[in-house]
Specification:
The complex is a heterodimer of chains A (298) and B (495). Chain A is an all-alpha fold. In chain A, 72% of the residues lie in helices and 2% in strands. Chain A has helices at residues 3-33, 53-81, 89-111, 117-133, 149-183, 197-229, 238-260, 264-287, and strands spanning 36-38, 45-47. Chain B has 495 residues and is an alpha+beta fold. In chain B, helix 5 (54-63) crosses helix 6 and helix 7 runs antiparallel to helix 9. The chains are: A mainly alpha (298), B alpha+beta (495).
Chain lengths: 298, 495
C-alpha cells in the first residue's frame, strides 16, 4: 500500500474503533443499569450483576477488539508517515487512547476490575472523538525540530506515564465514591464486586509509585532533547512548566503517603489533583497555550 | 502576654536560630515549600514572559497600562527570575540540604552497624506468631535462613534481630543529593553562562565577539572576555518543504568554521537537532528567512543602495516584512516592503504567499519620501519604517528582475538570499545538571523498588517470630511464613 492508502486505512480503523468503543460503553452501561432488581416491600433498589453478566462479557470483548483495531490504526498511521505515530496532537491522542485501553486490559487480567470498563470506555471515546474531529491533521513527515531519536523516547515515556496516571485517577475517584457509600451505611449491590477501600487506596498508590520514575525520565529526556533542539535544556515553556507542576504534585503525593502517612480520602484527593495537572497540560496547553511545544498547528 | 511567656521558654538568640533551622528543615516545611513551588510556577505559564514573548508583554502594556504596571511590579512578566520565586526555591534548597545531609551521615554510620535490638514485646509487631520449633535449634536455623536470604543479623542472647533493604534509604538519599547537584548545575549555568543571537545572510562571516551579536546576555559572573575566538562563514542554507502541507521537512546549514580565528576552516553542517559544539559553547540553527536583494538608483542613475535586506517571516508560507531605508538621497527615501516567495492572489486578500519556497517571488513595495528620523537619537528598528515625517509616493508589486520608477529614483528587485538566525550558548553547568538527572532517576528506582523490613526471632518458653515492614509494604507475611516453615522443618529433622 502507498502512504496515502495507509493513512486512509488508519482513518477508517479509527472510525471503526469509535463504533466498537461505543458498543463497549453501552454494554457496560447495560450491565449496570439493567441489573436493577425490585425488592418486595422495600424502598431500596438492588442490583443483580449476574443477570447481566453476558453484557459485561460483551463489553470486555469489545474492549479487546477495540484495543487490537486501535493498535492497527496506530501502526498504519506510523507506517504511512515512516515514523513513530506521535508526531502531533492527533497521533498523541490515538496512541494515548491505545495505552489507556492497554492499561485497563492489564489491570483487568491482573485484578479483575471489569467495573473500570465503563469510565475507561467513556474516556477512550471522548479522546478518539476529539482527536478525529478537532485535532485531526493529515499524515505528513515531521518538522525538523521533531526529527530526533528523542521523539520516540521522550513522548513514549510521557504517553505511558499519562495512561497510568489516568488509571490511578479513576481508581482514586472510585475510592472516594465507595467511601461515601460506606459512610452512608453500605455500598449498593452493583458496587460489591469492587475491591475493598484499602485495596483501592493501595492500588492507586502503587500505580503512581510505579510510574513516577518513568515520568521523571520523560521530563529529563525532554530537557536533554530541548538542549539539542532549542539551545536550552529548560526554558519554562508552558508545557515544561506544567510537566514540572505535575512532577511536584506527584512528588508531594508520594511524600505525603510515605513520610507523613496520608491514607484514604486525603491521599485520593491529592492523587486526583496531581492527575488533573497532567490533564490540564494535555488539553489547555496544547489547544490554547502558546509555546515551543506547539507544532504543526496542534 | 504572660500566657505566651509561660509557653515559650527563654531560649535565647542561638536557641531561636536553632528552632528556626529545625522548622525549616522539617519534612512538613519541605513539603509545603515543594507544593508552593508548583503553585508559584503557574502564573508564568498563564501570562506572557518577557524573555519568551516580549511582543505579547508589550500588548498588555498597550491595552491596560495601569494593570500591566501593577502586574510588572509583582514580577508577573518575569516569574522565574522574580524575588518571590527565587525565595521559594532557595528556601527549598536550604531545607533540602538541612534534611538530607544529616540523614546521609546517619545512614553512612548505620552501614557498618548491626540492626537495632530486638524489642521486648514481639506480639505488638506485624505477623506475630508462635512457631512449633525446637528451642535449642531455632536460633541457629533462623540465623542460617536469614543469612541465606541476605538479611543483616544481630545475634543476642536469646533472640535474633534481622534487617534487609538498606538500599531504600541509599536510593532515597542518592535521589535527593542528585536534586541538589541539578540545582548547582542550574546555578552555575546562570552565573557563568552566556547566550546570544545573530542573524546572518548566506555568504556572511561571523566573528565571535560581542559586537557581532544582535543581542547577547551574560551571566552575573561572566564577562566579555569569555567568548571563545572562532569565526563562522555561512556557505549554504537549504530548506525543504512538504508539498502537501507546506510544512518544513528539513533545514541544512553548511558553514566554514575556523576555531580559533585564523586556523584552517573546516566544513561544518548544522541542523535543528544537531548544533556545533566546542567545549561548553554550542551554536544552534534557530530560525531562517529571506533577504530580498535590491538596487536603488537616484534620478541620474547613480547607485545609492545595493544589497540584501533582512525581512522577518510573518506566516508559515514565509511572507516576509521589512523596511529598506535610503538615507543618502534627498529627500530621504524609505520602503515598507513584503517579500512573497511564491505568489498567489485572490480578490479578498490581494497578493499572498502560497508556498514557503521561492518559486515565483514578488516584492510588494510602498515608497515613502521625507525624513527617516534616523538622527532623532531614538533607537529605531531596522525592520520597520517610522513614517511620521514621511509621505507615501507610490505602491508597486515587482517580479524578479523588474524595476519600479518612483519619480525621484528607481528600485530594482535583483534576487534574494536566505538568512539564518544562529543562537550561541555557553552553559558550563549543564553537565552537572545532566549527571544529577541520571543519578536522580537511579536513586528513585532503587528507593521505590527496594522493600525495607525487619524480622525478629525470640526464644523463651516458645519460639516467637514477628516482623515490621516500612510503610506497610506487602510481602512480609510471605517471608514470615517461609521462615516459620524452615523452623518447623528443622524440628522434624532433629526428631
Amino acid at each position: 500500500m502507498t502512504s496515502t492508502n495507509l493513512a486512509y486505512f488508519s482513518n477508517g480503523a479509527i472510525y471503526a474503533c469509535l463504533a466498537i468503543f461505543t458498543i463497549a460503553f453501552f454494554a457496560h452501561t447495560y450491565e449496570v443499569s439493567w441489573s436493577v432488581k425490585n425488592v418486595e416491600g422495600h424502598d431500596r433498589t438492588e442490583f443483580d450483576l449476574n443477570k447481566t453478566a453476558r453484557a459485561g462479557r460483551l463489553g470486555t470483548a469489545m474492549m479487546v477488539l477495540g484495543f487490537i483495531i486501535l493498535g492497527i490504526a496506530d501502526l498504519t498511521r506510523g507506517l504511512s508517515a515512516h515514523r513513530v505515530p506521535w508526531g502531533n496532537m492527533y497521533e498523541f491522542s490515538i496512541t494515548g487512547a491505545f495505552m489507556l485501553t492497554g492499561a485497563f486490559l492489564f489491570a483487568y487480567v491482573k485484578y479483575k476490575v471489569r467495573w473500570l470498563g465503563l469510565p475507561v470506555s467513556i474516556s477512550v471515546l471522548l479522546t478518539l472523538g476529539t482527536a478525529i474531529t478537532v485535532l485531526y491533521r493529515p499524515s505528513a513527515p515531521l518538522v525538523p525540530a521533531l526529527k530526533s531519536p528523542w521523539l520516540a523516547i521522550h513522548v513514549l515515556a510521557a504517553i505511558i506515564s499519562g495512561g497510568v496516571f489516568l488509571v490511578a485517577n479513576l481508581v482514586a475517584a472510585t475510592y472516594l465514591l465507595m467511601e461515601k457509600y460506606e459512610k452512608r451505611g453500605g455500598r449498593p449491590q452493583w458496587a460489591e464486586k469492587i475491591p475493598s477501600l484499602e485495596n483501592l487506596d493501595q492500588l492507586s498508590y502503587r500505580l503512581v509509585a510505579f510510574v513516577f520514575p518513568l515520568w521523571t525520565f520523560a521530563v529529563i529526556a525532554g530537557a536533554i532533547w530541548a538542549e539539542s533542539a532549542w539551545g536550552k535544556y529548560w526554558s519554562w515553556d508552558p508545557k515544561e512548566t506544567w510537566a514540572f507542576i505535575t512532577w511536584v504534585a506527584y512528588a508531594a503525593y508520594l511524600h505525603a503517603r510515605v513520610t507523613v502517612g496520608w491514607r484514604g480520602r486525603r491521599a485520593a484527593w491529592l492523587c486526583i489533583f496531581a492527575g488533573s495537572t497532567f490533564l490540564f497540560n494535555y488539553i489547555w496547553v496544547n489547544i490554547w497555550g502558546t509555546g515551543l511545544h506547539t507544532y504543526s498547528g496542534l | 502576654m504572660s500566657e505566651t511567656k509561660a509557653t515559650v521558654p527563654d531560649i535565647g538568640f542561638i536557641g531561636l536560630l536553632r528552632w528556626a533551622w529545625r522548622q525549616l528543615t522539617s519534612m512538613r516545611t519541605a513539603l509545603i515549600l515543594l507544593m508552593l513551588l508548583g503553585v508559584a510556577a503557574i502564573p508564568g505559564s498563564l501570562f506572557p514572559q518577557r524573555n519568551q514573548n516580549p511582543q505579547r508583554v508589550d500588548a498588555y502594556f498597550k491595552s491596560d497600562p495601569t494593570l500591566a504596571k501593577w502586574m510588572d511590579r509583582l514580577h508577573l512578566f518575569n516569574v522565574y527570575a522574580s524575588p518571590w520565586f527565587s525565595a521559594i526555591y532557595l528556601l527549598l534548597f536550604i531545607s533540602l540540604i538541612g534534611c538530607v545531609l544529616p540523614r546521609t551521615f546517619h545512614h553512612l554510620a548505620a552501614i557498618g552497624k548491626k540492626p537495632p535490638l530486638t524489642p521486648r514485646n514481639l506480639d505488638r509487631m506485624e505477623g506475630y506468631r508462635i512457631v512449633a520449633a525446637d528451642p535449642d535449634l531455632a536460633l541457629a536455623t533462623a540465623a542460617t535462613w536469614l543469612k541465606r536470604h541476605r538479611f543483616r543479623i544481630r545475634i543476642e542472647e536469646n533472640s535474633i534481630s534481622a534487617e534487609k533493604g538498606y538500599g531504600r534509604e541509599t536510593g532515597n538519599l542518592l535521589f535527593h543529593l542528585s536534586l541538589i547537584l541539578i540545582l548547582v548545575g542550574v546555578a552555575l549555568g546562570s552565573l557563568f553562562g552566556m547566550k546570544g543571537e545573530a542573524i546572518l545572510n548566506v555568504g556572511d562571516r561571523f566573528i565571535n565577539t560581542p559586537t557581532s551579536y544582535d543581542n547577547i546576555n551574560y551571566g552575573k559572573f561572566q564577562g566579555q572576555g569569555s567568548l571563545i575566538p572562532f569565526s563562522l562563514t555561512v556557505t549554504n542554507f537549504a530548506a525543504t518543504y512538504d508539498p502537501v502541507t507546506s510544512q518544513p521537512s528539513n533545514y541544512v546549514l553548511t558553514t566554514q568554521i575556523a576555531n580559533p580565528v585564523g586556523s584552517t576552516p573546516k566544513t561544518v553542517v548544522i541542523k535543528v537537532n544537531k548544533p556545533w559544539t566546542s567545549g561548553s559553547t554550542k551554536v544552534y540553527l534557530q530560525a531562517n528567512g529571506y533577504s530580498p536583494i535590491v538596487t536603488v538608483r537616484d534620478k541620474s542613475g547613480h547607485i545609492t543602495f545595493q544589497g540584501p535586506v533582512i525581512f522577518l517571516p510573518q506566516d508559515s508560507n514565509l511572507s516576509s516584512l521589512g523596511a529598506i531605508k535610503i538615507p543618502d538621497m534627498t529627500p530621504q527615501i524609505g520602503f515598507i516592503a513584503s517579500f512573497i516567495p511564491t505568489a498567489g492572489s485572490s480578490a479578498k486578500r490581494g497578493i499572498f504567499s502560497t508556498y514557503p519556497e521561492v518559486l515565483d517571488p514578488r516584492l510588494v513595495l510602498s515608497a515613502w519620501e521625507g525624513n527617516l528620523g534616523l538622527d532623532s537619537g531614538n533607537p529605531q528598528s531596522v525592520y520597520s519604517l517610522d513614517t511620521s515625517k514621511m509621505a507615501k509616493i507610490g505602491l508597486k508589486a515587482l517580479t524578479l528582475g523588474s524595476t519600479y520608477d518612483f519619480g525621484v529614483g528607481s528600485i530594482t528587485f535583483d534576487g534574494w538570499r536566505d538568512w539564518v538566525n544562529l543562537q550561541i550558548v555557553d552553559d558550563p553547568g549543564k553537565l552537572y545538571a545532566l549527571y544529577g538527572a541520571i543519578f536522580a532517576i537511579l536513586g528513585l528506582l532503587i528507593s521505590l523498588f527496594t522493600r525495607q523490613r525487619r524480622i525478629w526471632v525470640k526464644v523463651g518458653n516458645d519460639v516467637e517470630i514477628a516482623g515490621l515492614a516500612k510503610n506497610g509494604i506487602p510481602g512480609l507475611e510471605e517471608e514470615l511464613v517461609a521462615l516459620a516453615r524452615a523452623l518447623d522443618e528443622s524440628k522434624g529433622g532433629a526428631a
